[in-house]
Amino acid sequence: MVDDAPAHHVPTHDAPARVRQLRLVVEAEDFDAAVTFYRDVLGLPERAAFEGEGDARVAILDAGMATLELANPAQVKMIDAVEAEGRPSARIRIAFEVDDSAASTMELVDAGAELIAEPRETPWRSLNSRLHAPADLEVTLFQELGES
After folding, report:
1. Are 119 and 105 in contact (CB under 8 A)?
2. C-alpha closest to that of 30 among 101, 123, 133, 128
3. Alpha-carbon span 34 to 30, nearest angstrom
4. From CA 84, how far away is CA 129, in angstroms rounded?
């Protein structure tokens, strides 16, 4: 019998990784406000910062482990329903794992983020909130709640 189902790649952990780092590059119109928000309020440590001619500036902030989460439209719609009462998310949304989603959400709102959705428990046992943050980014904060 021939199986016409698409093959799924099973990762092998013995093979060396070809990609060493995921770096998301975001243009921030108000650079100082964005650095203050993400570095000082959210707490992403600064790895490096560089300045160049014509007031060119960049700050490289460490966000811990990076993953690339690819989701089909049905999954995105389901996440939007759970996380933000069905409000469609931006095509690219940044998710940060934090220790206390509720407290971190309020800190970011106090620092200028627009609250899209209050922290709420998801079916996958995390506490998620959604915000519109500096540098025109849509952000999800999530706190893993562990086993029930």
Report:
1. yes
2. 133
3. 6
4. 8
Structural domains for the chain: 31-144 (3.10.180.10)
Show the CA angle centred on residue 101, arms to residues 95 and 83, nearest 5°.
60
Q: Give the pLDDT confidence score for residue 15 in this predicted structure.
A: 76
Percent composition of the chain: helix, strand, coil (DSSP 3-state, to 5): 25, 30, 45
Task: Report the length, in residues, of the chain.
Answer: 148
Over the stretch 90-145, which tens digit does the pLDDT of each residue have? 999 999 999 999 999 999 999 999 999 999 999 999 999 999 999 999 999 999 99
Distance from chain centroid for Cα 147? 23
Look up the pTM and report it. Answer: 0.85
